[in-house]
Amino acid sequence: MAVIGPLLVGFATTLKHLFRKPITVNYPEQKFPMFPKYRGKQVLMRDENGLEKCVACGLCSVACPADAIYLEAAENDGTVMAGPRYASVYQIHKTRCIFCGYCEEACPVGAIFMGKDYELAVYSKADFVWDKKDLLVPAAVSSPQPRAGTEAQTRDSGFGIRD
Ligand code: SF4
Ligand code: SF4
Fold first, then answer.
1. What CATH number did the domain enclosing 37 receive?
2. Is 18 helix (H, G, I), strand (E, B) or coil?
3. Is the pTM of this model over 0.85?
4. Is omega for the bond preceding 146 within 30 degrees of 0, making it cis?
5. More confident residue, 87 or 144
6. Domain annotation covers residue 163
7. pLDDT over 90 (residue 148)
């Protein structure tokens, strides 16, 4: 009789969980939704006209405590971004980045945001560096949207990530 009690408790526990909604995620087909404040791979933004927002001021690089950001400024002809200068080279070294978010806070024009991409594994050390093609939002995604909506949507969804 002493074993019956624990057995019933075990069965009851099993039954209780049997009809609950599963919390497992069928990764990688399904992406796990990240916490809203999660800081993943950075995203470089475009404005409402599809032009790059980064003015190559370098404040993000100065603010970075891990010295993970390298950029080169160039004169702009108006086709890349609205201002006179843009970042012809913009790189973030992912093995240095500690995802503190200081670069996002330092940017005066809202050009860089911490995204929510957590799939950061690579097969080659050459992929340790994110450049503009990895970071910049594709023009077709952000250009038709209002300025505020573009930033908020991209920031909240963590573009290129998992929403
Ligand atoms: S998140 Fe922090 S460590 Fe990473 S690039 Fe930005 S400022 Fe540097
Ligand atoms: S991302 Fe922002 S802070 Fe960094 S160089 Fe561009 S405009 Fe300046």
1. 3.30.70.3270
2. helix
3. no
4. no
5. 87
6. no
7. no
Ligand 1 lined by 92 (C-beta under 6 Å):
yes
What is the total count of domains within the chain?
Answer: 1
Cα(4) to ligand 2 centroid in Å equals: 67
The domain in which residue 117 lies consists of: 27-157
Specify the residue with its C-alpha closest to ligand 1, atom 7.
64
Instruction: Determine, yes or no, domain membership for 43.
Output: yes
Give domain status of residue 10, yes or no.
no
Share of the chain above pLDDT 90, in %: 57
User: Residues enclosing ligand 2, CB less than 6 A?
Assistant: 54-60, 71, 87, 106-107, 109, 111-112
User: Could you tell me if residue 72 is left (phi over 0), alpha (psi between -120 and 50 degrees) or otherwise beta?
Assistant: beta
Distance, CA of 131 to CA of 54 (rounded, Å) = 13
Query: Does pLDDT of 149 surpass 50?
Result: no
